[in-house]
Amino acid sequence: MKASWVLRLVVVTALVGVGGGLSGLVVTVALRAIQHLAYSYDTGTFLDAVSASAPGQRVLALLVAGIIGGAGWWGLRRWAKPVVSVERSVHGERMPPLATVVNVGLQIIIVGLGASIGREVAPRELGALFAGWLSEKARVTARERRILVACGAGAGLAAVYNVPLSGALFAIEVLLAELSFATALPALATSAIATIVARAVVPDVPLYNLPQFELSPSIFVWAVLAGPLLGTGALGFVRLVGFASKIRPKSWWILVLMPVVFTGVGVLSIPFPSILGNGKSLGEVAFAGTASIGLLAALALVKVLTTTGTIAVGAAGGTLTPALAVGAAFGGALGGLWSLLWPGTPLAAFVFVAAAAFLASSLRAPFTALVLVVEFTNQGPGLLVPTMIAIAGSVAVAYLFGRRRVAGIP
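Above: the chain sequence. Below: its structure as tokens.
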């Protein structure tokens, strides 16, 4: 009896990994197809295509995204079963298949057309949906289902970005908040399997190409000072996102507001093309290390504005990659100012440290944030110490502010 139970769990876990990989694969293929169609390109990056497109083409693409998104989410929220988030599914709620798939499809469409919001929720929702369905069919226990759903979501994240360790850590640290053999083994296995499956379309290369950096006294001191600033900025970003979520339109107003705001995002993309999409383009600009201090600061602010505006008008999507991009641009600006006082450190090194520290606080997951930025850049141990210092300072600020709010201190 025990042997059959173990075998069943092994098979179900492996299938959850396959499901997560297929989720990432489907999202990647669909997103690329929409991007290539909307911006008329065959090769190169999304940022290259957007930058080369006519201003009117960008505005039109965002207008279409707003019309499709507004009509789609209005109809979904009016007639379909309420969408259940991954977090709620981990705690036992069942994700309605049709509503979840439609919600995922709308996210892919608007991000592909250039909406300023993350794409990572879509593969996580698909992975969690499949894991929940499979758990019911396999008749696992409630605790096993909880772990498998979290692993399915983490596997979807791992697959779509080719970040197997980050996907496993996301399931353990963010969704389960439990590190044990019972959570670590399936999380590692499912994310590894998902990454292998998705490599049929997701290239096995880092998201950002960077040289290997060395530790310097300058960046170490900067990390000590910048960590709390980055944590304060991340806390502000999280609160803005929370406020935007609260004021989402609950009626037909979404049919008007989403096209109007999305068109505004398209207009802002005329001088700032890198704000479009999930944040990868802004990350490319920041990690290139060639942008001016003023431009990086402006891009960070505009990305915050467009992402929170997108959420405020009712769009669903993620904030993981936008937060990383905002942190990268913000850190690049801070690093550029620091280099005026203490030159010698490449700007991209500051960007790396800041992206991890900002994401750590906004995601409330320091280990996931650190590993995610490492996997995104294939960066070695040279910047590990200053990054850990900056993350500690950033998370400490968010924690202290959180304790003040709990205690009712203004």
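Residues 2-39 form the longest helix (38 residues).
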